[in-house]
């Protein structure tokens, strides 16, 4: 009887969850918009005088905008990356966009021109809008499944830049002292595996927060790299590291 009650409870929970997320006019529900206001934030940055007073309202308006969705195709395996790139550049996105609607064309995914080998992509709509829309449900599932399998990494565009500037090579020893949640760490690991042979270098990913280290482990283990070490330590008193 206990097992039956447990099963009924799960079924009821699933039904309630489905009802709260059912669509209304093509929009999935149960997502609450955040209030993007902070008196302390505004007071501090206004005191810095980093922008003219006349541009302050415009500055806040842009700060409150949702960031677009961006992702990278994993470069760990060049052959698999090529197959996934063919899917992305092929017919996958065409069904999401109405070619006769100019407004819809503005939402068309595009390749980041500065990212190597066409592996960086951006969708000009926010993650929130992708989750809300029935139209983009296919895209949402694609991003989720490929992220879990390590084939792509969802990452903000600005976060992709530092690893590229570092130009990490397979023989480098890299210490990421404040690594969680791990998107840049994953990118560094991929750069380590940019050649066919096993890297001789290592990425040491550290974070002082134990709970955030679990997110870091989740990010790194998707890539199955033997050249990764995760530590949970205060980076200001990091012990000496000897790598043979």
UniProtKB/TrEMBL annotation:
Listed Basic and acidic residues bias regions: 16-25
Keyword Ribosomal protein attached: no
Residues given in the record as S-adenosyl-L-methionine binding sites: 178-184, 207, 234
Positions with biased composition (Basic residues): 1-15
PROSITE patterns, A to Z: SAM_MT_RSMB_NOP (PS51686)
Domain named SAM-dependent MTase RsmB/NOP-type: residues: 59-244
Residues covered by region (Disordered): 1-25
GO process annotations (BP): tRNA methylation
GO molecular function, one term: tRNA binding
UniProt keyword terms in alphabetical order: Methyltransferase, RNA-binding, S-adenosyl-L-methionine, Transferase
Pfam families referenced in this protein's UniProt entry, alphabetically: Methyltr_RsmB-F
Name the UniProt record assigns to this protein: SAM-dependent MTase RsmB/NOP-type domain-containing protein
UniProt source species: Graphocephala atropunctata
């Amino acid at each position: 009887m206990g097992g039956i009650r447990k099963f009924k409870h799960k079924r009821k929970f699933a039904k309630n969850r489905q009802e709260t997320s059912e669509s209304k006019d093509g929009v999935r529900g149960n997502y609450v918009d955040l209030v993007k206001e902070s008196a302390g934030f505004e007071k501090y940055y206004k005191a810095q005088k980093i922008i003219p007073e006349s541009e302050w309202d415009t500055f806040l308006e842009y700060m409150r905008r949702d960031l677009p969705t961006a992702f990278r195709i994993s470069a760990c395996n060049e052959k698999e990356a090529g197959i996934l790139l063919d899917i992305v550049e092929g017919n996958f996105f065409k069904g999401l966009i109405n070619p006769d609607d100019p407004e819809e064309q503005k939402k068309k995914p595009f390749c980041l021109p500065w990212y190597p080998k066409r592996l960086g992509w951006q969708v000009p709509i926010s993650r929130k809008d992708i989750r809300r829309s029935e139209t983009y449900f296919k895209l949402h599932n694609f991003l989720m499944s490929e992220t879990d399998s390590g084939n792509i990494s969802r990452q903000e565009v600005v976060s992709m830049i530092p690893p590229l500037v570092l130009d990490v090579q397979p023989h480098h020893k890299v210490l990421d002292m404040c690594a969680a949640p791990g998107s840049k760490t994953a990118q560094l690991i991929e750069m380590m595996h940019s050649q066919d042979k096993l890297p001789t270098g290592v990425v040491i990913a550290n974070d002082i927060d134990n709970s955030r280290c679990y997110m870091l482990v989740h990010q790194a283990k998707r890539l199955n790299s033997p050249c990764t070490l995760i530590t949970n330590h205060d980076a200001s008193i990091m012990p000496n590291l000897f790598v043979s």
